[in-house]
Each structure stands twice: as C-alpha cells, then as structure tokens.
What does this fold into?
Amino acid sequence: MDIKSVGIVGAGQMGNGIAHVMSLAGYDVLLNDVSGDALKAAVATIDRNLERQVSRDKISADEKAAAMACIKTTPTLTDLGRTDLIIEAATERETVKQAIFEDLLPHLQPHTILTSNTSSISITRLASRTDRPEKFMGFHFMNPVPVMQLVELIRGIATDAETFDACRAVVDKLGKTAATAEDFPAFIVNRILMPMINEAVYTLYEGVGSVQSIDSSMKLGANHPMGPLELADFIGLDTCLAIMNVLHDGLADTKYRPCPLLTKYVEAGWLGRKSERGFYDYRGDVPVPTR
Ligand code: NAD
It folds into this structure.
C-alpha cells in the first residue's frame, strides 16, 4: 500500500515532531489538536526546529520550505479521514484515545491505516473498539522525534501483514530504524526505561540522594547522556506516571508501583519542562532543582 498523506492527532511535543519528520520525507501532513494554541505553537516549533537544521547544514533552505508547505492544520478531527495513515499522538489516557478513534471511524476511507503513538496502552484493546483491528497498530516514536533513530512498531493481535509492511515502509522512508515489539504493557523501551526513572524518584523520595546527586550519579557513573530526573522532566511527569500505572495494572506486579512523590508532582501540575516546573524549575536562565 502506498501512503502519501498522514493525519496526526495531537500537536504536542510528539505530534509536532512527527509532523516535522513526515513533512521532510515528503508526506502531506494534516495536523489536528483540540487546542488552537497547541496547533499554532506546533507550527512555530516545527519552523524553528527546521531552521536549526538549516543553520547546521543538515538540510537546505529549499528542503525546509518544501517541508513547511506539506503541513496543514485543522481544528476538525474528522478532516483527517481523507488521509492514508493516521497517527494518534494525543494525551496518554485511554479514554481520550478511544474517543478520538470513535469520532474518526465514520469518516475514514476503507484503506486508511489507524495507529497510535501510545507509550504503553494496549494496541489490541484500542484496535478492538474500531471497525478495522487488522488495519490498526502501534507506531511509537521516541522524543525528540527529529533526533531519535528508533521507531517501535507494535502489532496488535489482529494486525495484518499488509498494514505492518506499509508502516515499516514509512519508517524506512523517514530514514529511521524500526524495532518490532509485541503488544504487552509499555512494549520494549518504556518497559525498561520507566522502572529506572521511577526508581530514581524513589531514591529521591527516600532521601538517598538529591535531584542533583541522582542525576550526576547516573550521568557520570553510568554514562547516561541525561540524568533520570532530567529525562523524566523532558518526557513529562504525567506521561511517566501514566506509563507506570499501565505497567502496574497490566502486569499486576508491585515492583511497578508508581512512586508517591511522582504522583504528588503530577497532582501539583508540575509536569516537567512543558509546565516549566518538575524535578527542576525552568523559569529562570538555568534549571534549578526543586528538591
Ligand atoms: P503533550 O502533552 O505534549 O501533547 C498532547 C497533545 O494532545 C496536547 O496538545 C493536547 O491538546 C492534545 N489532545 C488532547 N486531547 C485531544 C483530543 N481529543 N484531540 C486532539 N488533540 C488532543 O504529550 P506528548 O508528550 O506529545 O505525548 C503524546 C503521546 O505520545 C502520548 O500517548 C505519549 O505517551 C506518547 N509519547 C510520548 C513521549 C514523550 O517522551 N513525551 C515519547 C513517545 C510517545
């Protein structure tokens, strides 16, 4: 199946990154969000990030202009029904994602492939509530999308070979590398990464280390490019908590219990970089640890 147009639901940090790489690869992109401000901010972010690639000689000014011309936005979700491939990248909450697919269904073309960029939610369960479980799969980009090489491709129990091959061809065209994961909670990357981040929050909660000592220990002692708390702020603490809850519920093992301190930060609305406060406060010139 030849995919020419891509509809993206959710214009947050992942949605704008996905629109960025898809447009550079020549796909027609239609980007939707419930928030008009998020749509405007996404286009501005894509423009800025493409400009940075021009200034570093990664792409030409003509390539940037061609990519920007490929991106259209719409406040109306159902407009995405005319695209060949839909990637849902809205908030990590199952009820939100389910409502999006329900609204989209009557407007889809028969050949349209539905995918979700979910970090952890069951692809099989999301697919089972649509009219096309065989044309539904997980299309999981990493953050930041223009920089990270990996895309996890997750087959639901009913996903057919044609759908999988079409999505793998898109990953190839993006110049990225696909890893195939089975549909179990949080797939591969987050199954391993999130418990490590959650353990870092427990280490803070129990007073074993400060934000700074935990992050520098893992950077200098384990050669991680970012400390786990800095990385949690980058991902979004709400997303981290949602993934831990999916692991805890889905695998029914207490080793995945979310740290109460992570819950407290989310309850405070301190979600990390996107809300300017998390384990660090980003409102000044340099990030300052909040504990
Ligand atoms: P985000 O909070 O930056 O953006 C989510 C966007 O979805 C917001 O702009 C919001 O307005 C929009 N939205 C909410 N409900 C909607 C609806 N009904 N219709 C249309 N838009 C809606 O979140 P994000 O970090 O971009 O995460 C999005 C998805 O990508 C989640 O499923 C998350 O698990 C996944 N993901 C995140 C990361 C990461 O590092 N943050 C990495 C890989 C995958």
